[in-house]
Amino acid sequence: QVQLVESGGGLVQAGGSLRLSCVASGRSFTSYAMGWFRQAPGKEREFVAGIRWDGVSTDYTDSVKGRFTISRDNAKSTVYLQMNSLKPEDTAVYYCAAGPRYYTTVRKTSSGYDYWGQGTQVTVSS
Fold it and tell me: Residue 122: pLDDT band by 50, 70, 90 thresholds?
């Protein structure tokens, strides 16, 4: 089992940047593929970005490609989401998630992840 704690959210103007962090504790961090999801008010939770346990493979939802970058530091048991050129439509609660490492490709659905953080609010003003 793993516990996940996100940080780094906040209020930023459109065009600005934020870096989210998610620290994992418990079972070995390399046992897990990691993902970021987000949920805006009145909308379903959606996949944002994911990374394989070894960092070799990443994937993104189309709306953030070229603006967001997911990375991980296995020595620090931390996954990051660098968000640049933020838009008001990026406003949401962002969740970190951990899933089994045996998938060879990045999982893009919630069902591919077993553990979730509490979320961190990102608000982008226009």
Answer: very high
